[in-house]
Amino acid sequence: MQSYTIGQAARLLGVSPDTARRWADAGRVATRRDESGRRFIDGRDLAAFAVEAGQGGGGDDETPRTSVRNSFPGIVTAVQLGDVAAQVEIQAGPHRLVSLLTREAVQELGLEVGMEATARVKATNVHIDRV
Description:
Number of helices: 4
Helix content: 25-40%
Largest sheet: 5 strands, antiparallel
Structural class: alpha+beta
Number of domains: 2
Oligomer: single chain
Strand content: 35-45%
Order of helices and strands: EHHEEHEEEHEE
Strand order of the largest sheet: 6-5-4-7-8
Shape: globular
CATH superfamily of the largest domain: RNA polymerase II/Efflux pump adaptor protein, barrel-sandwich hybrid domain
CATH class of the largest domain: Mainly Beta
Radius of gyration: 15 Å
């Protein structure tokens, strides 16, 4: 399972590293330390927290409310596979984006919960790029 540094998690959540560090210090998101003392957040834990924070549970006003060039870097919070189609949800800061695409595309990208991805929006279509 992919894990993220505090800085990476902050970027995915759309907050400053200091804010992400405060949330971790307060126990709002679980962290673990490696041999050198760096803190990491498990991808699944970060995905769950991203959903909570995106629903207004972030706790501060540092979260940006706009995107640049319709690109939303975030974390995959849900993947639902059907026989032919699939649905992928990404939490990008306060933004929850849902993309309907083929099962084959999801499998080719290797998308799974806790993985970093970028949603790109054009009109009413959401395209997903694996990072």
